[in-house]
Amino acid sequence: MSKKRTQQVDFAFYEALRYFYLENKKDIRAEYKNLSKKFLDFNSPENPQSFLRVPQFEALEMYVFLKEYLHNAKVHDIFEDWYYEKNKFAKRTSPFIAAEEQISFRFLDEKAYKSVFENMKQFAEEKFANYIFALTMGTGKTILMATCIFYEFLLAKKYPNDPLYCHNALVFAPDKTVLESLREIQTFDKRKVVPPEYVSWLEANLKVHFLEDTGTSLNIIENSKYNLIISNTQKIILKKQHKEKTPVDTLFSSLDLQGVYEEFKDIYIENDTDLMTNQRFEKLKRIGQLGIYVDEAHHAFGNELAKDMGVKKSQTSLRLTINELAKSLEEAGTRVVACYNYTGTPYIGSQLLPEVVYAYGLREAINNKYLKKVILHSYSNPKEIEYVRLVLKDFFDRYKDQRFEGMLPKIAFFGSTVDEVKNQLEPIVRQVLNELNIPESVLLINVGDPKITTNDDIREFNLLDTPSSTKQVILLVNKGREGWNCRSLFAVAMYRKPKSKIFVLQATMRCLRAIGPNQETASVYLSEENKQILEEELQQNFRIGTKDLSGQDDGKKLYQVKVRPPKVKIPIKRIRRSYTLERREITDKIDFEFENMNMEKYQLMHTVQEGLVSQFSRTEDLTDLRDKRTYSLYTLVAEVARYLNESCIKIEKILKNAKQSTDEILSYVNKYNEIIYDRIIPYLFNAMYNLNPEIITEKVELELVKEPKEGCYYIRAKEDLVIKEEGAKYTSKTFHLDTYCFDSKPEKILFTDLVNHKDVQEIYFTGMLTHGQTEFAIDYIDPESNLVRKYYPDFLIKKKDGTWLIVEVKGDNKIDDPLVEAKRLAAIEMAGASQMDYHIVKGTDVERHHYPFITKDSDATYKY
């Protein structure tokens, strides 16, 4: 039995899913709709103007992958196909080894597979798919959720009859406090994540309903689209009728209602006969194709998360709320498209959440600088005044006279009760502040009791994360578990053991949010007992220990890189292509050549395989059962005329004069509607217009580096891959920047070789500026997305004979990559027009100092 449990826990299918996506990305994207590819490319880190962080974008990739490639399939069905390498996973490579090497697919036998499969399936009772995206606090779950919803609405607009896409979205917060943090969705600048040509439409059609009050009604129009409803569960859930209960009923019905749900226990459902509908619920039943998004926030761990994700069966479970809503929507003739949960961890104690499709953990977020690092302080058996004195002295010594983004650093002391904070902690803190000659005005108390915390205190609390705030020492009760985001919080302190162990973890994570351009370090001050609790909770919820909070040293340092005068400008010839349309008369009959088309891509094929691993199957063509429109000549003419912006009379005349009869054209069109857009409209366009290209060459001077707004650029690099201008003997030949931060040893070797070469007059390392800091960039067409991107070569070299070289250093395994080839062709074209030469050199050639492009003998090896 224990073996079965281990398999359930240790096999992280989301890692296998991500591995498959990365290995087959090109083939997978080929099945995406163009708008999906455009949306992903706009948000890709390869786009210098992209806004999303890497984990946000990776999660978005998996979101689109599940929708466009796997068609909103349930996780256990996806796992079955993956294991047996069938359907969409027929090309899967085997074996797979998980990233953390917890379990190898090679040893996932039939028995282990069934154990994992059953674990997934038992929590998938719904008719819709349920996905979990587990991104740790501070990585941007709320923005990711908004981006996914915007994507859904854009696709729903373009493909209104496709059941894959959400026409409306309901965002759930598990409690009333996290609801406020979701207001960011309402105010978020859509231009950061939505391609510019779609922003105006989205702004005009998106209707946001923020249900912040219990008495707020939901005002949406029946059968309307693009409604974004933000609420917490008690503002949607069906209310029960209040009726007389026996003392025994009252006792047992309240046993399971604890934590954040206790305050609202009187409105959660208990059985089907105990319901009465409310206005919001009725309104939701009148809109179609609803997507449900659950922001479980970072405060939900352990039992609370287990309840809400359906792993622990409970009448207070958020999953039950969603299932009841889905059932009512189905009865009303509409449905839930899918449910997307955004949590802070993929784990519940020793168990993996079964429906996780993407995870980005606390360790990764700290190591990759998305959160602060942590210094953990613990104290053995101090008196409370000793503890407070040690903590405040260390805090003010460490952060004295510092500001971060103009804000003062703060420390939060967490108390278990109002009485503890008011009668014990506050007097001690005031005493220690006086001992340290720090004014008591830095103190702020927020305990949730209006008798103690005034309206002025609440206003000050809401302004903590602003430069105007002078508060630095905050005394709190329970603010560790709520949606309180304060980036300028640099320390937390907890002396007494709280009632709930998970509160130690929740409070600790309050101070981890990143601030400023550098990764800062937060301080956590705990008693020895609380430190041990933190260790246990980190292991339970993140599979890491306290040592992981300090961050992994990747060996890189942050360097200030300044522009070295005089500015270097490079004369080049830029090639532009201009296309003009020339209308022409149609004199010949148009031949649509239907017989040469590959019709297989339009067919709907049904394959039946008896048994999961059977080699025998049968296939039938169900194309005639597809949902398609039947066109007459007049409706076909109208559709084509609308696309080409031509008169219907003209289009009708051309179609009637075509080589194929109108009956033959209609027979093809009515069998496969897509032929209108794939064949008829393109052929008519080519017959009606000449597309005349014109190549324009213009002389321009490019700045090798733009002036930084803040006086310098910040670039991280390993110390052994950095060369500074200071002390260098060859400054006259190089250094348009005062520091060169190389990405690899071959780049540094090539630079040190050629800067000393007798034929080299100037050499500049340009490969470190890849985010719009230089004008020296080459436009190329990405062969995968067909979008225009910018390529930043590694080196620009001027020889003493006046000729220029553009040089790229590439790993041997990348030389034949289609992306590298696309960059090479674009660079050769630009270089040729500018009387320059372009060369790619292998990393192994550099390591043996072999540079055919700079030495006369192609077999020569340069020794400096």
UniProtKB/TrEMBL annotation:
It comes from the Bacteria. Keywords: ATP-binding, Endonuclease, Helicase, Hydrolase, Membrane, Nuclease, Nucleotide-binding, Transmembrane, Transmembrane helix. Residues 109-308 form the Helicase/UvrB N-terminal domain. The chain crosses the membrane at residues 128-154. Pfam families: ResIII (PF04851). GO terms for molecular function: ATP binding; DNA binding; endonuclease activity; helicase activity; hydrolase activity. This is Predicted type III restriction-modification enzyme, helicase subunit fused to restriction endonuclease-like domain. It comes from Anoxybacillus flavithermus (strain DSM 21510 / WK1). The lineage of its organism: Bacteria, Bacillati, Bacillota, Bacilli, Bacillales.
